[in-house]
Amino acid sequence: MPLGDYIIMKLSADVVLRRYHEEDLPEFSGIDLISVEQIGNFGNRPIHVACIRGDIDEINALIGGGADIHALGELGNTPLHEAVGQNNFEIVKLILCLGGDLTVKNDFGDTALDIAINNNRQDII
């Protein structure tokens, strides 16, 4: 098939929000998800969920759609806390390059760096 016959669709924030709605994720169950800054049932925004899922394309789309990389979610975690908790070095690197703050403490008083140290995440430290 010639290249011209392929339709290339760039992932957009709207596509990610629709995907999350269609997957009926518990975080957004019963919520009409219409904004990248919408807070879910457990206190997370879509950017937190994307960091937990480890999907860098979703994260880029959400950030491109205006998602706040400093937003506090469930238990006071930022997207950076979530990425470190999932041991996803590429996402940690992306968030730090975009100005992610290593000094923000969650509800337990832990920074993202504390989480990396406590979980012996040498590649992140």
How would you describe what is shown here?
The protein has six helices and no strands. With 125 residues, it is an all-alpha fold. The longest helix is centred in the N-terminal third of the chain and has 10 residues, at 13-22. The protein has a single domain, classed as Serine Threonine Protein Phosphatase 5, Tetratricopeptide repeat (Alpha Horseshoe), CATH 1.25.40.20. Helices cover 40% and strands 0% of the residues. Helix 2 packs antiparallel against helix 3 and helix 4 (79-85) packs parallel to helix 6 (112-118).
Give the amount of beta strand, in percent: under 5%
The succession of helices and strands, N to C, reads HHHHHH
Global morphology: globular
Number of helices: 6
- CATH architecture term: Alpha Horseshoe
Low-confidence stretches: 1-9
Fill in the CATH topology. Answer: Serine Threonine Protein Phosphatase 5, Tetratricopeptide repeat
Ends apart, CA distance between termini? 46 Å
GO molecular function: ubiquitin-protein transferase activity
Keywords: ANK repeat, Repeat
InterPro entries: Ankyrin_rpt (IPR002110), Ankyrin_rpt-contain_sf (IPR036770)
Protein name: Ankyrin repeat domain-containing protein
